[in-house]
């Protein structure tokens, strides 16, 4: 148990007095099980050892924490130890299984057919609103970035032109580096100090949320505002980043906010959509938001739906697919309409996404059957380069977790990267002698520098542009626009810059830098082929730039199905579907041989209890008895209020679900399982004081409705804020009406894959383990299943950490 480490997480702050929902006093939200780390490092094999192991581990761990706290009272350590073979106990699970208690069943029976139709219409209205707002947010980001980046490039270009004539170009370099660093400083400050969860692309966090893990603050309005401002400043600051990845997170936050009909950040309740205030409904809308984000970013509604299915939603149903597609279509249509009006051609809907790869004409750029092996080879190269990118980023992230954990250091690092990016760009433009004629070219900011009149510096077009424009240039510039040396140097430098930039405390995506690196080496590959084949007509560099971009992105993020469709929709050409699919499949197979995908790697580094599609293949030898947490805290159907308060106040075993058993109050013998009740439900019962003086009295207080539970969702008050007098502690509380009378259970002999399948497919939070007499012997939660994974030496068991 020595590896209990305080570690910086996505939420960024040490939550000593504030957990993810802002609840004081619940520092380690455990999923129900024994005390922290009961199932820590060793497998439990015999029932007799359950209680002993649970208690011993509990004591050890608490002593460790106590020692840590006494040694380091308040100061932050210079180095934070980190071990990726840990599983964090601080992440709670979402509850995707409806609690079918009496209140729920009564409400469902009262709803007639017309009311169900109304609920269904509301779902469609919410999906339309998600699409419209996501599209508008994308428009806002695009327009602001275009104007601010344009202003910056014009200022720097004028300055360089001025100093080229009279000498003193070092001033131009200083101006460029200062502009970049100051813009990125603002973007990094708001993320590091206001909302750390807004850092990065947000895709790993949304993947976790849709998988069933509650990530602190991930779908808050404040996170959306910081995300949007942060991504604008990152792109304008010239970092090697894109604005497409964060759109997925932004869409998810918009979906979560609209579907709940209120904002906890603004402390406003609009009293609409109250029926959807539960995890099950919220998750479905967040899936739609993520799809709408992809759709707005790439103009790819089908790709958005498939992204949500492949990368996000762990639980899927048929009706949901159509609604998500509807939200995606509305999103791309809104973006298209607004941008078309903004660009002055209102009736020509020509801007379906934030990035438009332009039209790839099949007649000019078709492919032949003998090119298929070449494309497969490009996939292999993409897989190897992607694996290298991920491995470098892994070590860099480990370094950041250990040493760069203070917000001020994170801001300094972001400013350093911004200044270095500008310096590298300037030096490469300065050293490049690759001059191309301006006539007939579509360069936005042609920089002459040392070129002859009527010519521009080709290297400057790659750096003197937002990454999106650079990608499109590499796809569509005519053959001969780039010198092979220029492309080779650019690929090398941009590869390391993008790798260094991903993981900074700024809002930024990795999609566009990956496409840009791939497009650069793909075009270089195409030029080389054309040299080798003496300029054959089929060796078009633009086509190979597209395949290189797909290979590089596939090698880094390891998406297959959705990425194929996104690339097809973004190019507007179905002909390339087959080669793109081949390239992505090859890149994924080769990349997976070396290291996992970038998003999965970052999820693992944060020690999140993420459940993959299947249980580890070699886990059939394990049974529920060996993986479950124990001992389990049970409640009787009619329980003393004092007992309930004491159990909820016990910080050493911060359980969230309690099996309810039928038992005679005078005996200590545990009887059969009768139901399951959640911590949140008990807190609402105590808050409304739903108890009577003696067990045989009937309830006289006003009856609680489901609305009372929905009003408290998602941030239930902490138990410390509920006052229970000494007299009230002696009262009794009847749980029959509020508990779920039919919780899912498994026998203790069930194999791990069987338990895993049931738990994951139904989106459970608690799975009760019973013996042949239906008595509770243990509880399986997310952390019990997530801690078994397939390592290089076979089945590994992760330790549980208090962070």
UniProtKB/TrEMBL annotation:
Annotated region described as Disordered, given as residue ranges: 1-44
Pfam families: CBS, Voltage_CLC
Entry coiled-coil feature ranges: none
Main location: membrane
Protein's cellular compartments: Membrane
Keywords noted in UniProt: CBS domain, Chloride, Ion transport, Membrane, Repeat, Transmembrane, Transmembrane helix, Transport
One annotated GO molecular function: chloride channel activity
Protein name: Chloride channel protein
